[in-house]
Design a protein that fits this description.
Layout lengths: L2 E3 L3 E5 L5 E8 L4 E5 L5 E5 L5 E9 L2 E9 L1
């Protein structure tokens, strides 16, 4: 189920894996940001526009898609 956020901040925790990149997409597939934290956790600031976003999180173990809702 989507993670709701009011202030646009989303915590990403890879549970010990290194996050090599996070691609932030709108639901229609538009890439809005690329973050390269090179850490096991980071904060992502979503765009100001209210809506649902997809976070494509790439770690040392693979990729995970996370759906987040900006309220």
């Amino acid at each position: 189920s989507p993670n709701p956020t009011a202030n646009g901040m989303v915590q990403v925790n890879a549970l010990g894996d290194i996050i090599s990149g996070i691609h932030v997409y709108t639901l229609n597939g538009k890439l809005v940001e690329i973050i390269r934290p090179a850490a096991t956790r980071c904060q992502v600031q979503l765009p100001m526009m209210v809506g649902t976003y997809l976070l494509d999180v790439q770690t040392t173990r693979g990729r995970k898609l996370e759906r987040v809702v900006r309220r």
